[in-house]
């Protein structure tokens, strides 16, 4: 009988030791800032490389076509003005990169910020938002269906997430910066938060040398 009790006690010790060493309870995921999920960057699986192409959206002076900007290097960014982190970071870096350019170089560059939240981002709000970062940045928007089609051609996407913030919703979106050369061709997709110096270097690859 005593041997049986010893064996049971040894078994209990081994079970407890196993739980201590190998059992790790799942940790609760706490939303960022206490009341909203972290803003997400969408990674879009592509069946083929993005092709880019012309588009026309609503801007400060009315409809603006990408074709209207031939002769300029265009930096294209998808986002929205209520974006809590990704967009302010990207636009701040772009503004820093623009400040490093000479006046002649700057005249050959145009940054387009395309809002994927047309419900809240009208043209007036986009003007106020983009000029806060740099006076030369142009904000554009349009119907959701049109924005979805344009974003898809550039290898981007966006998804509205309801009831996850005090504002009612956020929009998860691809955070790449697209370089469109002076002939309107998509030539590069740059990662989010690329340092301003590197961004300026990438821009100069497609600018006139003189």
Describe this structure in words.
- It is a single chain.
- The protein has 210 residues and is an alpha/beta fold.
- It has 6 helices and 9 strands.
- It has a single domain, classed as Glutaredoxin.
- The chain has a 5-stranded mixed beta sheet with strand order 5-4-3-8-9. A two-stranded antiparallel ribbon has the order 1-2. Strands 6-7 form a two-stranded antiparallel ribbon.
- A hairpin with a 5-residue loop joins strand 8 and strand 9.
- The longest helix has 21 residues.
- The radius of gyration is 25 Å and the shape is globular.
- The termini are far apart.
Give a brief rundown of this model.
With 210 residues, the chain is of the alpha/beta class.
List keywords for this structure.
single chain, 210 residues, alpha/beta, Glutaredoxin, five-stranded mixed β-sheet, two-stranded antiparallel sheet, 6 helices, 33% helix
How are the SSEs ordered, and which strands pair?
Blueprint: H1 2-22, E1 56-59, E2 62-65, E3 73-79, H2 86-99, H3 103-106, E4 109-115, H4 123-133, E5 138-140, H5 144-153, E6 158-162, E7 169-173, E8 177-180, E9 186-190, H6 196-204
Parallel strand pairs: 3-4, 4-5
Antiparallel strand pairs: 1-2, 3-8, 6-7, 8-9
Helix pairs in contact: 2-6
Number of domains: 1
Strand content: 15-25%
- CATH class category label: Alpha Beta
- Residue ranges: pLDDT <50 for 5 or more in a row? 4-38
Mean pLDDT: 82
Distance between the termini: 97 Å
What is the alpha-carbon Rg in Å?
A: 25 Å
SS field, number of helical segments: 6
Structural class: alpha/beta
Per CATH, the architecture is 3-Layer(aba) Sandwich
Largest sheet: 5 strands, mixed
Helical residue percent? Answer: 25-40%
What coarse outline follows from CA principal-axis ratios? globular
State the CATH topology: Glutaredoxin
Q: What name goes with the CATH superfamily?
A: Glutaredoxin
- The topology string of helices and strands comes to HEEEHHEHEHEEEEH
Strand order of the largest sheet: 5-4-3-8-9
Number of strand elements: 9
């Amino acid at each position: 009988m005593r041997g049986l009790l010893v064996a049971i006690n040894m078994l209990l010790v081994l079970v407890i030791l196993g739980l201590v060493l190998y059992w790790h309870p799942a940790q609760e995921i706490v939303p960022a800032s206490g009341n909203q999920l972290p803003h997400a960057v969408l990674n879009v699986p592509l069946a083929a490389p993005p092709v880019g192409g012309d588009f026309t959206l609503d801007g400060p002076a009315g409809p603006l076509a990408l074709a209207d900007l031939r002769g300029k290097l265009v930096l294209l960014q998808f986002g929205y003005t209520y974006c809590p982190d990704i967009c302010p970071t990207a636009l701040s870096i772009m503004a820093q990169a623009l400040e490093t350019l000479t006046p002649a170089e700057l005249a050959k560059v145009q940054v387009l910020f395309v809002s994927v939240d047309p419900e809240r981002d009208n043209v007036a709000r986009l003007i106020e938002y983009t000029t806060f970062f740099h006076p030369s940045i142009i904000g554009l928007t349009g119907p959701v269906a049109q924005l979805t089609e344009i974003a898809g051609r550039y290898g981007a996407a966006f998804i509205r997430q309801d009831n996850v913030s005090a504002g009612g919703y956020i929009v998860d979106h691809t955070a790449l910066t697209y370089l469109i050369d002076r002939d309107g061709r998509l030539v590069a997709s740059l990662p989010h938060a690329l340092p301003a110096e590197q961004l300026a270097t990438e821009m100069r690859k497609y600018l006139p040398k003189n």
